[in-house]
Amino acid sequence: MEDAHATILDLQTQSDRPRQDAPADERLSFFGVYDGHGGAKVALFAGDNVHQIIAKQEAFKRGDIEQALKDGFLATDRAILNDPQYEDEVSGCTATVAIISGKKIYVGNAGDSRTVLGVKGRAKPLSFDHKPQNEGEKARITAAGGFVDFGRVNGNLALSRALGDFEFKKSHQLAPEQQIVTAYPDVTIHDISEDDEFVVVACDGIWDCQSSQAVVEFVRRGIAAKQDLEKICENMMDNCLASNSETGGVGCDNMTMSVVGILNGQTKEEWYEKIAQRVANGDGPCAPVEYGQDGSLFPELFFTNAWTAEFRGPGVHHNFDDSDSGYDMDMDQRSRNIVAGGKKGRIILLGDGSEILTGPEDADMIDNEEEEEDLASQAQPVKGEEHDHKPLPTTAAVPEKITRPIIDAKEKIENMVKGEVKSE
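The chain above was modelled as a monomer; its predicted structure follows.
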């Protein structure tokens, strides 16, 4: 495991002049995630020390949190270099940290871990991934004598800012923030509002599988179902895991995730209830009810007013870049422009990571026995398990309980494509 994390509810206790028992509205809380690569040593050092180093910066003592984050990240690099036990260390790690006060959220980020704010079910990015192909990052890399090949720094590193990775920080003529790879963070400051519900801090093991918007909706559904935040994180990671880790790639990376509730002066119970009421009233997007049951995406068939059918099996929802509207789009959302006979017609088979999009020309898409058997197998429930499904608020003419396996998958799909879905 190359990841590390830190949760410090009162960061003032970590400074050179610690203040004990700070009032809750004056307290600074710290949440950090560090995703290691090339080994775990730098990530573990970061998890143990970054918050302490930030709290000891002069800028922190005078209340300049933004500058303290910048100084603290660079000071962490120096601390590693000056420690004899890291003399020949080649590993590195991302760092995304959130410092939360009663009124503001400060986020420092170096690398491709990510911090996202849930605002009434909508994802607001509080950090931005540092990738070598980004124009600003690429310009710094090349100016420092490096190059980008196949989206990697010098053909090797898939991110452009990190703690450690000292093989890319060897120029004595350049400042730390000008090196091929730098620990210098971007810092985002957000003024907390009544609409802000929670913050998600996670490594790319999550974000490679799910879009920011999908994660926010998933977390919100878990909160509406009154699940513990720890359980929501566990469910999220379960749904990101690849079905077969031997294949590598998406769903096989280390995963670390923290969810931080923004109480806004409420008790924990009041916070849960407020979000649950918002969800019940349709105030902002939220994952379907099925996600809130136990976090699993069981294979199930349901129809919405858009005449959309989905099979959701265990596995990942491949992430797309942010949409033009400012919100992330996962594979489900991107496919909604597929139209069949004036109605949207879509079949998604995620059990094995594949997707089938239907249209008017696809009525004969399963005209042989092998394809029919394959489709039916995607809809098989876990042995010995049965699940009741209540209609979503937008469902049209759907039985309260859908029995699986689907008896005649071909007929149902053809009817859906023609816009002739019937109740049973």
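The radius of gyration is 24 Å.
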